Amino acid sequence: MSTPISDTFGQQLRQLRSDLLAQVRAQRGGTLGRAEAAAEARESDGGDWAQADAERDLGIALGERESAELVAIDAALQRIADGSYGLCVDCGVAIATARLHASPTAMRCVGCQTQLENARGEVAVPKL
Ligand SMILES: [Zn+2]
Questions:
Q1: Ligand 1 center–CA 45 separation, angstroms
Q2: Where are the beta strands (DSSP E) in the chain?
Q3: Among 22, 57, 86, 111, which one has the highest count of C-beta atoms within 10 angstroms of its own C-beta?
Q4: What gap in Å lies between CA 95 and CA 89, rounded to an integer?
Q5: How far apart (Å, rounded) are the C-alpha atoms in residues 31 and 41?
Q6: SS3 for 109?
Q7: What is the pLDDT of residues 89-123, one digit of tens each?
Q8: Cα 53 to ligand 1 centre (Å)
Q9: pLDDT in tens, 51-98
Q10: Ligand 1: distance of its center to the CA of 59 in Å?
Q11: 75 vs 78: CA distance, rounded Å
């Protein structure tokens, strides 16, 4: 009678995924612009080496964050496919729907996530 939770979030996750990919593409464009500007400013002492270095540094910085997000989205889609979506990977309880709405890639209930973040002392990237 009601739409299964996995259908609702599957759609949302696929949307997030395509948004993220569009965002990465847009940011890569911006990155190349900044790297080129940086290389230009350094042209007198750096040449090709400085440009390659700036592009690589910015590319890596962007890539890590966005690829972690993409991995989290793909993991969530995988969990929808195997039927475990919406269950905490640590304690197995159903994750609050409100939490999933706020963060569709959430793999842990609030309690386990808080514990994890406290243990790491940073914002946690979902562990696979
Ligand atoms: Zn839990």
A1: 54
A2: none
A3: 86
A4: 10
A5: 15
A6: coil
A7: 999 999 999 999 999 999 999 999 999 989 876 65
A8: 42
A9: 556 555 545 545 777 888 888 999 999 999 999 999 999 999 999 999
A10: 35
A11: 5
Q: How far is the CA of 64 from the centre of ligand 1 (A)?
A: 26
Task: For residue 11, report the distance from its CA to the centre of ligand 1, in Å.
Answer: 24
pLDDT category at 33 given cuts 50, 70, 90 is: very low
Phi, psi of 87 (to 5 degrees): -110, 140
How is residue 64 written in tokens? 């890590």
Apex 51 CA angle, 48 and 53, nearest 5: 110
Strand-pair partners of 94: 87
Q: Which residues of 28-58 are buried (b: 16+ CB within 10 A; e: fewer)?
A: eeebeeebeebbeeeeeebeeebbeebbeeb
Phi and psi (nearest 5°) for 106?
Answer: -55, 130
Q: Which residues contact 114 (CB under 8 A, 6 or more apart)?
A: none
Tokens (6 digits) for 1: 């009678």
